[in-house]
Design a protein that fits this description.
Four Helix Bundle (Hemerythrin (Met), subunit A); 77% helix; 6 helices
Length: 139
Amino acid sequence: MSLNLDTSYISKCNQALKRAYQQLGKYEEDSIDYEIYRSAVIKEFEIVLEQSGKLLKKVLKPYLHTNKAVDKLVFKDIFREAGHHGLLELEEVERWLEYRDNRNSTSHDYGEHLANETLSLIKQFIEDVNRLIKVVDAS
């Protein structure tokens, strides 16, 4: 079974995230350049997270009994189902759920503490996205 899903957009966004994260490390935390790159990292994180859920939802269609069942899945359930069907490891699913919780927090209260909390997740997130892209490409 081959779904032939296009992962070029998420790949490009993940590359932008990686580059912004690398650039961020070149600046002092109190500089305007740091602020610019921190904002870019957080925005790309949000975009990539949403794209990840959308792509994985498409991958799950053959695993569930109806398209309607897939359509009813909310973000966290998409990743739980992916773990249930062996598309992701349990540890990966737990991290994706943490990413979502973090995203929900930052969208409601964009403070410096939450921004820094997001930054602490980015290195692993980039790796998890690369793994997810491989899962999607293999489906």
